[in-house]
Specification:
By secondary structure, the chain is α/β, with parallel strands linked by helices. The chain has a domain of 184 residues: 3-Layer(aba) Sandwich (Rossmann fold), CATH 3.40.50.150. Helices cover 41% and strands 25% of the residues. Strands 1, 2, 3, 4, 5, 6, 7 and 8 form an eight-stranded mixed sheet that branches. Strand 2, helix 5 and strand 3 form a beta-alpha-beta unit. Helix 7 packs across helix 11. The longest helix is centred in the first third of the chain and has 15 residues. It is globular and about 50 Å long.
C-alpha cells in the first residue's frame, strides 16, 4: 500500500476542519501537558514565538501571555477550521513542511502533539530550524509507544478489530514514541542540546460512549474517515470499544494514563 502525502494532508485538514471547536472543548484534560511544554520552551518577555500544529491555539495563547505586549506569538496550522477557534490570536494557515516565514524569524518554536502528523518529519524539523534564530529553542511533544498510550491505542485497537485494513496508508502516530529515536530524528535535522523526558497524562471518562466521542473530537483524519462509514457501523464501534476499555475500568467509569515525550532542542 503506497503512501500519498498530499492525500494524507487533505484528509487531516478535512478532519480537523470538521472537528472545529469540539477539539478545544475536548482538550481540557491536556492543560497540564500544555503547561509543561510552555515551561520547557523557557519563554521570556519580548520573544517571538511560533506555535506549529497549533489547533485552537492553546499553546499560542499561553505563549502570548508569557512574552507580553512587546513580544509576538503566532498560531500556525494547516486547518483553517481550527484557527477559526482562536480569533484573539495572530494566525497563519500554513503547511508545517513549507513555512511562509523568513529565516531566523523566531526565538522559540512550539509543536504540541503535532510532529507525528507531518508526513515528512525531517522537512518540518528543517523548516523549524530555518525560522529559528541561532540561539533559539524548539520544544515539542509526541505520543509515546502505542502500548503506553491507551488514550489513543484503545480506539485504534477497536477499529482494527472491527474494520477492514485502511485503503490509504498513514504514518504511525507512535513512530517517535521511543526517546532514542526521537533524539536521533532531531539530531539528523541539525539540532543539538537535545533533551527528551516522559510526561504522564491521565484522562477520565464516565462510560465507553464518552471515551469514543472524546477520541473523535481529537482524532483529525481518523475522525474524518470514520464519519464516512454507515451510521450503524459508527454506532457499533462506539459500543464495542468497551471491550478494549475494560482494563482501564475504575469506579464511575474509565481512567487512562498515557506516556508523552517532551523534547527540547536547539538549532546547530
Amino acid at each position: 500500500m503506497s503512501f500519498d502525502s498530499a492525500q494524507f494532508k487533505r484528509l487531516e485538514r478535512a478532519g480537523y476542519n470538521r472537528i472545529g471547536p469540539r477539539y478545544l472543548a475536548a482538550a481540557g484534560p491536556r492543560s497540564d501537558l500544555a503547561a509543561a511544554l510552555l515551561a520547557a520552551v523557557r519563554l521570556a518577555p519580548g520573544q517571538r514565538v511560533l506555535d506549529l500544529a497549533s489547533g485552537p491555539g492553546l499553546l499560542a495563547r499561553g505563549a502570548r501571555d508569557a512574552v507580553g505586549g512587546k513580544g509576538l506569538a503566532i498560531a500556525s496550522d494547516i486547518s483553517e477550521g481550527q484557527l477559526a477557534c482562536c480569533p484573539d490570536l495572530l494566525r497563519v494557515a500554513a503547511d508545517g513542511e513549507a513555512l511562509p516565514f523568513a529565516n531566523q524569524s523566531f526565538d522559540r518554536a512550539l509543536c504540541g502533539l503535532g510532529l507525528m502528523f507531518f508526513p515528512d518529519d525531517q522537512a518540518a524539523l528543517r523548516e523549524i530550524h530555518r525560522v529559528l534564530r541561532p540561539d533559539g529553542l524548539l520544544a515539542l511533544s509526541v505520543w509515546g509507544r502505542a502500548e503506553e498510550v491507551p488514550l489513543v491505542e484503545t480506539a485504534l485497537a477497536c477499529m482494527r478489530r472491527l474494520l477492514p485494513p485502511p485503503k490509504v496508508a498513514r504514518p504511525s502516530i507512535f513512530r517517535f514514541g521511543d526517546a532514542d529515536e526521537l533524539a536521533r530524528r532531531l539530531a539528523s535535522a541539525d539540532y543539538c542540546d537535545i533533551d527528551v523526558r516522559p510526561f504522564q497524562l491521565s484522562a477520565s471518562f464516565s462510560d465507553a460512549g464518552a471515551y469514543w466521542q472524546g477520541f473523535l473530537d481529537l482524532a483529525g483524519g481518523a475522525a474524518e474517515s470514520l464519519s464516512r462509514l454507515p451510521v450503524e457501523k459508527q454506532q457499533t464501534l462506539a459500543a464495542a470499544v468497551a471491550e478494549e476499555l475494560a482494563p482501564h475500568a475504575v469506579a464511575g467509569g474509565y481512567r487512562l494514563t498515557s506516556t508523552i515525550l517532551i523534547a527540547t532542542a536547539r538549532p546547530v
